[in-house]
Structures are given as structure tokens and as C-alpha cells.
Specification:
By secondary structure, the chain is mostly helical. Among the domains are: 98 residues, DNA polymerase, domain 1; 27 residues, no CATH class. It contains six helices and two strands; from the N terminus they run ααααββαα. The protein has a two-stranded antiparallel ribbon with strand order 1-2. The longest helix has 21 residues. The mean pLDDT is 83.
Length: 185
């Protein structure tokens, strides 16, 4: 219940003592209950990202507010490398989690819980699709991104092997379906 309104399925984070993880829960309420989000389908992934970050920090005995650690690698880059190298998470999964975590730290900065962000922003060159209104794009092929975010990676489509193709075509009894499959292949 939030302000007397039931939100079944809304994620909350608890410390080991079963007390509310107040900063994370305030962020979840702020971020997920805004009109811009609007989808309950984003609740699990956002909650999972924060849970995983706080679990990582707790396992390494690091306070989430300690953004000025004086180390070569700060909190968020260390978490990113943990996701990619140790856990071997997919690049897109790691990017999604980092998006929520960076939003959490931006919220924490706005609330005054941290003195600075544990990441910086940099200008990156991006490819823009040419289209009807491409001439009014004033970005110059540049975009601002945070420096912990790995570049997005498009996975190539997977193709059927010859054995799989033959099995598919032999399973199709309807000649029209078989012809459509051949055209698609």
C-alpha cells in the first residue's frame, strides 16, 4: 500500500535485518510510479537491478554512499565489470541494470544522499539513421552518455542449419505453407 493505494507486485527491498532499505524504496516509488514509466512490467527488472547492486556492495563490504573511495575504479564501474566478467551476464542485461542504477544515483544526488555521481558523462559519436527529417538533426552525430555504460551491441540473427531446414520443410504438410517457408528461407 502506498498512500492508501494498493500496488500488488510492487518491489520493495529489505536489509538483512528485514528493515526497509529506505533509499532504494524511495527511488523505486519515485521512479516507477511516475506517469512516464506507466508499465508494471518494468517493476521486476528495476527491483532486481537495485537488489543485485546492493547485494554486490554488501558482499564486498562497500557502503553505497561511498562514491569518493579514491580508488581507480568506483562503485558503478566495479559493479559493471562484476556483471560482465564474473557473472557473465549478457551485454544488454548489464546495460539495462546500469540504466536503473545510474538513475538511482542521479536521484540520490538530487536528494543530497551523495555528494557526486559515481560516474561521469562523456560525448560519444553515434550513427544516426538518415531519413526524411535528417537535415534538421543538430546533434552532429554526437550524444551524451555516462562513461560506465558499455556500447550497445546488436546481436546478429541466427539462421537455421540445413538439417533444420529439411526437417522444417518435411514437417509442413500443406503445400502453401511449404512454399511460404521456402520463400522465407
Amino acid at each position: 500500500m502506498i498512500a492508501g493505494q494498493p500496488y500488488p507486485g510492487f518491489r520493495i527491498l529489505l536489509w538483512d535485518s528485514m528493515e526497509s532499505c529506505v533509499p532504494a524504496n524511495q527511488f523505486l516509488r519515485h521512479y516507477l510510479l511516475r506517469g512516464a514509466i506507466g508499465s508494471r512490467h518494468s517493476w521486476p527488472s528495476t527491483g532486481r537491478a537495485l537488489y543485485d547492486l546492493f547485494s554486490f556492495l554488501q558482499a564486498h563490504e562497500i557502503d553505497w554512499r561511498d562514491v569518493d573511495r579514491g580508488e581507480a575504479k568506483s562503485l558503478v564501474p566495479a559493479y559493471r565489470d562484476y556483471c560482465l566478467v564474473t557473472c557473465e551476464l549478457a551485454l544488454n542485461t548489464t546495460r539495462q541494470r546500469l540504466t536503473y542504477i545510474c538513475k538511482f544515483y542521479e536521484f540520490a544526488l538530487k536528494e543530497g544522499w551523495v555528494k557526486r555521481l559515481p560516474f561521469a558523462y562523456e560525448e560519444r559519436t553515434v550513427r544516426r539513421e538518415t531519413g526524411l527529417l535528417a537535415h534538421i538533426d543538430a546533434s552532429g552525430g554526437k550524444a551524451v552518455a555516462n562513461d560506465v555504460m558499455p556500447r550497445s551491441h546488436k546481436t546478429l540473427p541466427k539462421f537455421l542449419s540445413m538439417a533444420e531446414i529439411k526437417a522444417l520443410l518435411s514437417a509442413a504438410e500443406n503445400p502453401h505453407h511449404r512454399m511460404m517457408m521456402r520463400l522465407g528461407l
